[in-house]
Amino acid sequence: MSSAAGAAREADAALEQGLLEVLLSDHGAAGPYEAYRWLRERAPRLRTGSGLVVLSGYEDCAAALRDRALGKADESLGFALAAVPEQLQRRALRRFRRTMLFRNPPDHGRLRRLVAQVFTPRHVEELRPSVVARIDELLDGWAGRDEVDAVADLALPLPVGVIGDLLGVPGSDLVATAPRVRALVAPLEPSADVDAVREAAEAEDELAAYFADLLEVKRRRPDDDLLSRLATAHGDDRLDDDEMVGTAILLFAAGFETTTNLVGNGLAALLAAPEQRHRLAGDPGLVATAVDELLRFDAPVQTDGRTALADTRIGDLDIPAGQVVLLLLGAANHDPAVFTRPSELDVGRREAPPLSFGGGLHFCLGASLARLEAAELFPRLLSRFPHLTPAGPPRWRRALSFRGLDQLPLRPGRED
Ligand code: HEM
Fold it and tell me: Is it the case that residue 225 has pLDDT exceeding 70?
């Protein structure tokens, strides 16, 4: 290696390290968007010292999501920046990684097909009355209280309850299983270390044992829910045992970590922009653009990852087969080339779809369900509690990929 190339590589390694520190620092927790802007202006297609390609522009991320040469790696989780031994990576999430989220065609299509039938717009629409009933019940619980935590008292129980119903997970089991999900998804964070991956492996074993038992119950006594559909599928639709258990875990996890953060981050954003909050409260017709804007403004999933299955190219950057690519979706959503004044919330914005649900083959299966939950929730919350105010500082979780709040203390105020 020439000394110039060596120096460039050292500079990139320092940039990578510095960037990660900024993104995960307290300042980063309050908002990684300044750090993203800094990166996008200096190195929108960064090749890091550890050999990762990091994309932060909207067009590049959108192109990478569409590019069939960029897929999922078979063996490793790939985009952890810290060194995690290959063997442990392979051991972790053994079943989770046999689901659609981690597979390429033709396996991907086979694994997605059966479940996709339940997430069509028509099916999701049928869930609307029960979602509304759940929202009303949770908001009833706010009435007359001096203070609530919008995470524990709304953002978490709403999606957990909705996905629990859809899958057929008994309500009494939700409290115990939900915290394991957070440990499970930790290795998808770029900051994941050996301990996080080890804990994820344990969490997966526990969740797998739970869902294997539940699927067996559903096989013997099928009900009108998604796990029964998985457990009783025949012929080409039938998944093997690990795939079935992995899919149950995936749907359960994907169904609420993310939607919790849409509700929490969205509410925090509206509280910080009173003019936009009143605009939405006064015109519920804006709800569709408002939900897209909340998804864009502070995306629940900030990163996505791909591995090159063949040589390809993004803009002027050659990407050789085997290259791991980290997509900063949250940065793409704030790209000024696509969004005017990206750091301002505008509930009527109609510029480009946010990349918050990913794109291409792996486009989020639950997008219409998440949108439905948010679209029913925000107008109800704002009209029922028009005097809602913060009761203390929000507490952000120290995580980059799954960006969300641990706590959002609020005073509901008097009802209208
Ligand atoms: C995939 C985000 C809610 C199920 C994805 C992906 C993203 C995402 C970014 C793409 C991952 C990739 O490219 O590798 C979100 C956000 C949500 C949300 C921001 C809420 C605001 C949901 C819900 C469900 C769900 C409610 C329903 C159970 C899935 C599944 C996939 C997925 C199954 C994998 C699709 C595939 O690989 O083909 N989601 N999600 N998500 N999401 Fe969501």
Answer: yes
Query: What topology does CATH give the domain 3-411?
Result: Cytochrome p450 (1.10.630)
Amino acid 185: pLDDT: 83
CA of 359 to the centre of ligand 1 (A): 10
Burial class (CB within 10 angstroms; exposed 0-12, middle 13-18, buried 19+) of 282: exposed
92-135 pLDDT, tens per residue? 778 888 899 999 999 999 999 989 988 988 899 999 999 999 99
Distance 14 CA to ligand 1 centre (A): 32
Instruction: Identify whether 106 is preceded by a cis peptide bond (ω within 30 of 0).
Output: yes
For residue 324, give the 3-state DSSP assignment. strand
Residue 354 or 117, more confident? 354
Domain ranges for the chain, please list them: 3-411
Ligand 1 pocket check for 366: Cβ under 6 Å: yes
Integer Cα distance of 81 and 17 in angstroms = 9
The residues with which 47 forms a beta bridge, in sequence order, are 53
- Letter string b/e over residues 87-113, b meaning 16 or more CB atoms within 10 A of that residue's CB: ebbeebbebbbbbbbbbbeeebeebbe
**CA–CA separation, 101 and 95 (whole Å):** 11
Considering the entire predicted model, what is its pTM? 0.93
Structure tokens at 57: 């522009």
Of ligand 1's listed atoms, the one at least distance from the Cα of 329 is 9
Contact partners, residue 35, CB within 8 Å, separation at least 6: 19, 22, 23, 28
| C-alpha 254 – ligand 1 centre gap (Å) | 6
CA of 275 to the centre of ligand 1 (A): 31
295, 365, 373, 377: which to mutate for ligand 1, most atoms within 8 A of CB?
365
Q: Is the CB of 251 under 6 A from ligand 1?
A: yes
Q: Which residues contact 217 (CB under 8 A, 6 or more apart)?
A: none
How far is ligand 1, taken at its centre, from the CA of residue 251, in Å? 9
Nearest-atom number in ligand 1 for the CA of 119 is 27
